[in-house]
Amino acid sequence: MILGLTLTMLENDANPTISKSTGLPRKRFYRARAHSNPLSDSHFPVPISPSEVDYSLHYPQLFPSNDQRDRSKKIEFADIGCGFGGLLISLSALFPETLMIGMELRDKVTEYVKERILALRVANPGQYQNISVDRTNSMKYIPNYFEKAQLSKMFFLFPDPHFKEKNHRRRVISPHLLDEYAYALRVGGIIYTITDVEELGDWMKTCLENHPLFEALTLEELEADPAVKLLCSATEEGQKVARNEGQTFQAVYRRISAAP
Length: 260
Prior knowledge:
The protein is an alpha/beta fold. The protein has helices at residues 2-14, 55-58, 86-94, 107-123, 138-145, 175-184, 198-210, 219-224, 236-243; strands at 75-80, 99-104, 131-135, 151-157, 185-195, 214-216, 249-255. The longest helix has 17 residues, at 107-123.
């Protein structure tokens, strides 16, 4: 163990992308555009079906092999457009027994989150084994990752507002995409959204309110949900809004059964 930590420290000294003081990757080496076009054709591997998601790659300590017979647990939380991974890391401590994955389209940002998780695992043995990240386009490939009713939580924090009306079809919350999210969410599962753009907040709330398979959480339920408390504080975007004393607009809805 001591030898492993020593080797890690030596590697960090030789690698300028790693902070010597924290052992974590330096964000400035992984900067990318704030948003990407989700309708463009990006080239990266995508699982053919949820059974093809390699859990041994994402959670090696929990799944030493990719044998389907060892799949005692499945991913339950999905952070869509996870950015630099702040929410994932906070959720990992809050729900240590739950598998979760971040889905991010930008390659440099995805690489940063991978390095951040690996560094946290090294620095905190036994912790952060339940989180991972994958570079993918969640607007296209949700059914490739998750079975019907597999997820219990989906997070959409500070998504690209796509201000121009002609680009509203790029928004990650829309009536037709909510059909896919409803497929992946189990009954009782929760979808969390937050933005600092009032018009986008109204848009997301309206889409959810008008969908027959979602209903809003009550004020009491929101106050009792520990994940709600992270929506403003866990991400880089949320922290920036808080520093600037800006407003945020949340919409948190539960997946319900279809009407008979």
